[in-house]
């Protein structure tokens, strides 16, 4: 499903007090008397999609002009994703866009219920709408757009070589970047290699082990306090078992006291089960204290002051601390740094071989890119010739028989993402005139017809879903006007088309006919928009043909026009 504009509400813009445009997916035409405000419809659409805000367009007496549009989009499509990226919402496949312009010139924009910069609407509009009018910046006047449109027009013939070129270009760019880094930063890389080499040699000399710093810190603490540790263990052992060197037994130790307590309780344990339990616990405590005393004796025996070992531990710790201070937080981190640095050093030391290898690949890729770019140019040149001839033929039918459109391809100095071709649409107004860029080779009215011819030829290849034409029929009439209507209807088969016109031959081809009606009380003029049924279309076409809505001749001619257009569609 292609996105489309479903409804537009306009308030306080120019002569339009309040109007609602209900648009069909196909060909929509807007007509009305001179001064009724037809151009305000195009202005409103322009504002909706990020156009310049002119406070002079605000209706006299109004504080602001407001334009609100309802668009139908795919809930999971690209447009919906762009809206979600800025915090807006698409509900049930409907997107609401709103724009206000105050009489003081302030402008605000909303997208999917979220306030956004006006530039966001402009960015979104690139994929939604193409406005063609005498005063508008034409989308297809942008060189990048022209090349993209020509590529789509070329079709399947370009798809395969362009894909192959894009893949080769990507790798070519990667290799070019690597070569530049290796050659232009050789000094920095050599300095980096020296630093890595120095660090690895320093670590290799110390030869740290994982977790060694923790173990050495614990050993240093133990050796530094050997006397205090041994004294504490001995004192605790004496307190538990007594001093074996004291024959008098003057010291009351814990084991002796526990023994006395147990003897006293054991003597009467049979008289009370509760006291028997206490006796068992006293026995258990005695065994536990004996084990602790044994461990204390063994510990005291194992502790020795060893100044030589202490000095060796402190020296080793100092060496490890130096590495940790430079390279990591602990010995494990130092080893990890060494491993990563060894890999990086191997990479740096292989620069010469790498440069030679990359240079060879770069030359091969450059040659391959040249071949693929030439193939792209060949396909584009053929498509450009077909396209120029097709547009020129369309212009002949649009009352520009002497105009000629060509697609000029020039070669850039360097490879780009899409090749070396720079594409520009040019037009010569008559056979003796040189082809000029579109905005210089055609007048405002002619340019709209040129863009119509281009869009008709591009139809189906151009992804823009909505086209707006203002004054596309300026300066033409009769048969040429019929041809303009016919081509707008053809374009509407693949896209939504909105046209402001004063020609009944164009309006007759529309799927939906909107008329801007003007009313006034002598001092204030108000305009609104009405959707016409068949009878209403006959009256409006009669007015446009004869100046009289109820002219029998005009109504007959209007019916004839509608019948001709219906048969043509």
From TrEMBL:
Residues 348-375 form a coiled coil. Residues 6-518 form the RecF/RecN/SMC N-terminal domain. Keywords: ATP-binding, Coiled coil, DNA damage, DNA repair, Nucleotide-binding. May be involved in recombinational repair of damaged DNA. This is DNA repair protein RecN. It comes from Nonomuraea africana. The keyword Nucleus does not apply. Pfam families: SMC_N. The keyword Cytoplasm does not apply. It comes from the Bacteria.
